[in-house]
Design goal:
Strand content: 15-25%
Shape: globular
Mean pLDDT: 87
CATH class: Alpha Beta
Largest sheet: 7 strands, mixed
Helix content: 25-40%
Radius of gyration: 18 Å
């Protein structure tokens, strides 16, 4: 008696399955959990976490909203430094999304900025369930020294991170490709960096489906 070997999925079928998993994950209810202003307020949780980091006004909140398909889940603002706490969202009891305070510039007293920075650093280095940091870079401007400093710190702390080029719709195709190539060349020098760079536009929904799939892969690992 013979049995038929299981059919092997093609690369295209595997990719379609990943994107469907991403769609289903982000179709779950995304619920605001809390805004932590101190390390003692960070919630106890065993959910895998993904954090959104980047310079002030780079588009973190907009990306959270685009991924979840909810325009007002995360508060957006044209004022740099508006997010001043660690904002936690529970995605269907399967993944925790964390919107971090922007770095590099903020219209706030120096003491407040230092407090946010210290809170963020403590969180990033002391959160065992943190699976990845999405480090957002404005595609119009590329990597800045302040981004490089954060990348070196994450390398030293062995915290996995992935670069996300935001606002891709603001560049023409040739300029965007050049930005991607120069960023990839620099990224290769960093030991904790994920090798793939995500390219997104929250306004045009470009790259959102692919990023959902990547985050679903992390959620599946538990």
């Amino acid at each position: 008696m013979s049995s038929k070997a299981p059919e092997t999925l093609t690369d295209e079928q595997n990719e379609q399955a990943r994107r469907e998993a991403g769609r289903l994950l982000f179709a779950q209810e995304a619920r605001f959990l809390l805004a932590a202003v101190g390390a003692d307020q960070v919630p106890a949780s065993d959910l895998p976490e993904v954090a959104f980091a980047g310079r002030s006004n780079v588009g973190k909140s907009s990306l959270v909203n685009a991924l979840t398909g909810r325009r007002t889940l995360a508060r957006t603002s044209n004022t740099p430094g508006r997010t001043q706490q660690l904002i936690f969202f529970d995605l269907g009891g399967r993944l925790m999304l964390v919107d971090l305070p922007g770095y590099g510039y903020a219209k706030a007293p120096k003491g407040d900025v230092e407090r946010w920075t210290r809170l963020t650093r403590d969180y990033l280095k002391g959160r065992p369930q943190l699976r990845r940091i999405l480090l957002l870079i404005d595609s119009r401007h590329g990597l800045k020294d302040v981004d490089r400093a954060v990348m070196r710190e994450l390398d030293a702390a062995a915290v996995s991170y992935q670069l996300v080029l935001t606002k891709s719709d603001k560049l023409k195709a040739g300029a965007l490709n050049a930005r991607l190539q120069e960023t990839a060349a620099e990224l290769a020098k960093h030991v904790a960096a994920h090798p793939e760079i995500a390219v997104t536009s929250s306004e045009k929904s470009e790259g959102i489906e692919e990023l959902r799939a990547a985050l679903a892969d992390l959620a599946a690992l538990g």
